[in-house]
Write a structure and sequence with these properties.
The protein is of the alpha/beta class. Helix content is 36%, strand content 8%.
Length: 299
Amino acid sequence: MLPFAVTELGLLEGYQSQSKRVMSSIYRTLLTLLIAAGACSYLPVYAKKISPPPIVTPAEWGSNPHPIPDDKKQIPQWITIHHAGELWHYGEDPAEFVRRMQIWGQNRPKLEKPPRDTYWPDLPYHFLIAPDGRIFQGRPVTYEPESNTKYPLNGNIGVEMMGDFNVQRPSMEQLSACVALTAWLLQEHKIAVDKVRTHQDVAPGQTDCPGKDFYRYIKDGQFKLWVLRAKKGQKLNIVEGDALPDGPTKSINDPSTAKVPAPPAPLMPNSTPNLDLPKATPPTALQDSNSVTSPTSKP
Ligand SMILES: [Zn+2]
């Protein structure tokens, strides 16, 4: 009986160890599947790249940049946000605004008095956002920006929103474009969100740029939350705040800011036709970092 019992026990043990091996194999398979599933659920978060927002290229808006010296080359490390600091008039053409700004920068030595007479071969900013949300590409991000205020320029990507946010409110289109652009720039240049700041943060006491109605979203941290959502490819979910008690009430897209059309010029005999040549007059838009009229209104 004993051999049988041993044999039987042996068989039983055999079954038990085989059963253990099967179970262990199932556990291993399950564990592998769980790890794979876990990894897969995280993969899209890390691997997903957001697409660039639509950008009007320099060729498309008719840029005519001059060469920028090599000693102005940079590796982007910061995103610095501005407003133009000039009232935007409803109906203005943003492409014309950008072209005029470029021509003015190139002619500063002839047009401006020291210390504002420095030559700017290309736009002082890297991106400019129109009230309708269109993003215009300015100088290449591989070159530092320009400014009339004093702060370390090297490493900054300058993003400017057209308008004066001390007297008019940014449009939702502008806010959305600024968030989407900032998120994409952070991704492309591997910059952390805490490296997003505004002109007044980096040049305190020299400017109130980018205006109180935009700066509020920097102060309360909302802008960075919007950017983080955008960077993850989530819905933007931007909520415009109420008008500030001491701030502007009208949107930049309010038609009441339209320039009153000039009355038609009287027809003069032998008058010179208007050739629509680019004017070398400074766009007041360069109020940002350039205003000398009033230190309090200096953006
Ligand atoms: Zn500024």
